[in-house]
Amino acid sequence: MRDSLYFVIPGHPIPAVRMTQKSKWVNPRAIAYLDYKRTIGMIARASAKGQQFENAVVDMKVYFMGSGGDVDNYIKSVLDGCNGVLWKDDRLVVDAHCRKYKVDNVNLERIEVEVC
User: Fold this and answer.
1) Can you say whether the dihedral through the CA atoms of 24, 29, 106, 95 is positive or negative?
2) What are the start-end ranges of the E strands in the chain?
3) CB 86 within 8 A of CB 35
């Protein structure tokens, strides 16, 4: 049986955004995304306690208010945020699933992540 890891990223989910080397320092959306990636990494590090994965399978549930982002951009946020933490590089992820759920309360916004 494979080891697995479950953790929750609380708060408003932020999907990946396109950015250039220059815009990542001045574009408010890029700055928010980069900060969110760091937060994901910190939460993953605290949950994993040194555990790393190869041939990882990632299952995500995104709970959001409003219109939400594209599924692939939520996946990118989580995979990039976990680089160097849960895996050396996200090229080691072999499968990723993501489902979006609309919620009616800002306190319910989050991303639930399971990795095995």
Assistant:
1) negative
2) 5-10, 56-64, 93-102, 110-115
3) no
Collapsing DSSP to helix, strand or coil, 41 comes out as helix
Contact 9, 110 (CB under 8 A): yes
Give the pLDDT confidence of 42-94 residue by residue, as tens digits. Answer: 999 999 999 999 999 999 999 999 988 999 999 999 999 999 999 999 999 99
pTM, entire model: 0.90
> Would residue 47 be called left, alpha or beta, if left means φ above 0 and alpha means ψ between -120 and 50 degrees?
alpha
Start-to-end C-alpha separation, the chain: 10
CA geometry: angle 100, 105, 106, nearest 5 deg: 85
In whole angstroms, how far apart are CA 80 and each of 1, 41, 90, 103, 107?
26, 9, 7, 25, 25
